[in-house]
Amino acid sequence: MDCKNNVGQDSASFDEFMTMLCKTAKVPCIVCGHFDSELKALRNIRAARIAEFGSVSTAELVNLATARLSVFAALRSKPVLPAGLSPDQSDAGRFPVWTRQGGCILGVGKPVSRLYPIIACLRPEDDRLRPDLHELLGIGLAHVAQALAQQVYARPVWPEGLAETTLRMLAIGYFVVNAQAEVVHDGRGDECGPDQPWLVANGRLSLRVEAERAALHAAIADATSEGLAASIISVSHGDGPSRMAAVAPLGRGDRGLALVLFESRRTNHSALRDHFFRAYALTRAESLTAQEVLNGRSPNEMAEVMGLSVATVRSYLKQVLAKTGTHRQSELISLYYSSILPVGATIARAEARRPA
């Protein structure tokens, strides 16, 4: 059992917080982590023990909590919902869930994808007389939930090992350029026709529209500077609506390089978006709403296309933004295009290492 995995980004600070929580609550041991409802296992376990308050091993408490969580997951596999409520609506008011059975107090927070933030301690004899204990554990659970959200929303959507195959299958175009926008590798494939917006003039990458060209070069400068910032830019297409392109840092030794990743005419939008929707556990209705956001439609336009009221569309949109950790449609679009960066990063690094 691994009790040293990180729950949050700053594991030392989290350990200090857990120890302080254990001392303040006056319990011998507190365990927290993320419960995988599919594997029926605790992940990213962290624990704090204070021997002066009693003798209980971390393993014992983890086993108690896991047993209760397995029952919890089984009960939720076929939930009985009030009439007129969807599973998402029913879940909204049901977290956190607290139990005092099996020798421990267990708190379960609202899931992110299939992971539930949890916190547990051995149940003291006088726990009913200690309302402060519940409040302290609630604070701890809130910290675990925040760390889980940060971890899930920050992870790359695409497995790096499948990057090259995925890039070809989805027909994603890319360039590898240096700080002066000079093309190190041209990965456009068949996107080289006269009606395409991408230009390579005197070995430098450019765009046909002046304002977009300036935005591209500014994004390349940001990606190859010390800040190593990624950007999303809009690129006009004569044969349809504008498309987005992502510009991300790509180092090679002391030469600053940038990866420019963009959708081509053959890009499999459906596969790209379905993977993105699954990564954030969007329901069918939420996925359809997110699809229209990525198509650039406003809530009023979505309502017309989807045959729903504007109020219903806004409700679905609110759920999509909450699950993806974004706050407005532009942020959701940016998150989607940023999520495909890891697909191109592996192949671009390989191309950049090839001798000229």
Descriptive labels:
single chain; 356 residues; alpha+beta; Beta-Lactamase; Arc Repressor Mutant, subunit A; 3 domains; five-stranded antiparallel sheet; 12 helices; 12 strands; disordered N terminus; disordered C terminus
Description:
The chain contains twelve helices and twelve strands. Mean pLDDT is 75; it is low at 1-9, 79-93, 156-166 and 343-356. Helix content is 44%, strand content 23%. Strand 11 (240-252) and strand 12 form a beta hairpin. Helix 1 (11-25) runs antiparallel to helix 4, helix 5 (163-170) packs across helix 12 (341-353) and helix 9 packs across helix 10. The protein has three domains: 11-154, 2-Layer Sandwich (Beta-Lactamase); 172-266, Beta-Lactamase (2-Layer Sandwich), CATH 3.30.450.20; 269-335, Winged helix-like DNA-binding domain superfamily/Winged helix DNA-binding domain (Arc Repressor Mutant, subunit A), CATH 1.10.10. By secondary structure, it is an alpha+beta fold. It has helices at residues 11-25, 58-76, 87-92, 131-154, 163-170, 210-224, 269-279, 284-294, 299-306, 310-324, 329-339, 341-353; strands at residues 29-36, 41-49, 97-99, 104-108, 115-122, 172-178, 183-187, 198-201, 204-207, 231-237, 240-252, 255-263.
Radius of gyration: 25 Å
CATH architecture of the largest domain: 2-Layer Sandwich
Number of distinct beta strands: 12
Largest sheet: 5 strands, antiparallel
Question: Percent of residues in helical segments?
Answer: 40-55%
How many angstroms does the end-to-end distance come to?
48 Å
CATH topology of the largest domain: Beta-Lactamase
CATH uppermost class of the largest domain: Alpha Beta
* Overall number of domains: 3
Any idea what the shape is? Answer: elongated
Low-confidence stretches: 1-9, 79-93, 156-166, 343-356
Please state the structural category: alpha+beta
> Helical element count?
12
